[in-house]
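Most newcomers find our protein records easier to grasp once they have seen one. The structure tokens are whole numbers drawn from a learned vocabulary of backbone shapes. The record below serves as our worked example for the rest of this section.
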Amino acid sequence: MIKLIYKAAKPYLYPNLINKRAVQATLFETYFSMKTSTIAQEIKAGWYMLELKAKGEFATAELNLHFSEQQSFPITLRAKQLMKRIVYLSKPTIQIELEFKVFGEGDLTQLRLVPIKEQFAVDRMLKRLAGTTESQADIISKIQHRAALKQQETHQVLFAAYNRLFSKLSEADYSYWLEEIELDLIEKFAHAYPTAPSDLDGYLCILNPSYKMDESSQELLIRFLSQHPEAVLVYPDEDQLDRAGNRIKPWFKTDWNHDLFLNQDYISQGFVCRRSWYEQHLSMFQSLGTSQALAFLLPSLSRQQILHLPLVLLHKLYGGQASQLIEPFSATRTNRFQLPEPQPLVSLLIPTRNKLDILKPCVESILEKTSYRNFEILILDNQSSDPEILEWFQTIQSHDQVRVLAYDHPFNYSAINNYGVKQAKGSVIGLINNDVEVISENWLNELLTHACRQEIGCVGAKLYYSNGQIQHAGVILGLGHVAGHAHRFAERNADGYFGRLKLVQNYSAVTAACLVVRREIYEQVGGLNEQDLAVAYNDVDFCLRVQAAGYRNLWTPYAELYHHESVSRGEDDTPEKKARFDKEVAYMRATWAKELENDPYYNPNLSRVREDFSIRDFF
């Protein structure tokens, strides 16, 4: 075990780089940009742990650190959180230049450069690169192989790979991915499916005229399909060709995503299917065309019958500027479902403790803005002591749709909600954080419409930070410790990855900050896990149990609320809270190891570190 031993040298410490002064930007406008004066300081070459902290009312801030003209490090900061990052200076530097950008109000309050041993730096970088699904031995092997090919020092390749974890890969970096990663992936799949079926005539490759797929790629898809006798169709990932024939704009697709396909055709561009299945429905393909025929046929198939091979084998041809302006997600369909009759009673459960300034806007926004009126609010009071909120409880429960129930036990989010469900009168349960605020008046209609579909389990909403950036748009398994939020920190009006921020779709999980589910399902899977997951990841665990019970979880962009994440509970910043969090992470990894390794609604070619659908580095 490598132990942390600092060198004797004193850390370079700048506790107040920016004077305490509020910097306010108008909401939903551009970033406020502030550049500090250059800091003159001689710093030796070597390995350092960079420690940064900022405070203020913002979701994220951007910091660029320039060490002379030698190296620059772009860094994303979150309010009140200590950020640590390993840096390597190959040469001494005599000055640091900082550029701090914040959207909202904020200060950079701490910067430390702590000298560290190379062995410690290597160990930390390997752990970060390995993430939750790879061993350090595998990472070392890949690093050494890459270093040999590039004739570089091992630590140079390692540090470059580590740095890429913090930067979204640009369009140009797709060329890097093609050069360094794609061939290995194709060889891996070819080795896994080495033999083509004897009857190749039993399969068809259906291609849109605007696309191409070479024969070797078609054969690989046929091999893959032939090894799954229950399947009728397989589709690959795709990219586009520019005027010069260069491959650009990769589209790393989800596995079969029923509700996404109802709204977006991401398969008909090119796929391989069994000839018998195609000929069985030949008249439909001829009369409706491929896209519309699939729209009718695929939703009736099981998940096992529709396969996805996560390799870029399909290429959209360059067809002039006009066609290139049409993005793949423009081929969308609109599906609307109806509320059931009679309309069910929805019980909205809101756990809370003190913090009237947070809870009151939440409750009032629900009462005043929600167009669907058949609901009750259960405020689950977890030992509030503030006289002001206790007085408000007396006032608010005079409203005929509001009840205040006391939960006089230590904080346990799972147990509080399970208690609330037992007291609820509704056939539909809504788990609501006390730090959300309603934006769209039809938010509950939208969630309820999907939750009442018999095949649907948990339904989640589109949540924003106060500054309008995305806080939640579905949960992706395997990001960071256990899971992360899709598109977190994207701008409010962004389309997302190939339109996914604008489309109803399935995810493995959604956050319980705003989650609606039928009561029968909640009780069927045993509610939230109050024994092992008192605080963190109980919503992810719950959703996975619902999914395992045969339901599809769903996220919709048409239910919009603000979410001031974990404002009332605070941060996990004590040894006890960190120990509890580590225990909950260990439980999730042990219980859901297979699911965390490969989220079917994501893609193995996408980042396991960032939440912005960046290309994965595969280190």
Q: What stands out?
A: Residues 68 and 95 are 6 Å apart (CA to CA). Residues 173-192 form the longest helix (20 residues).
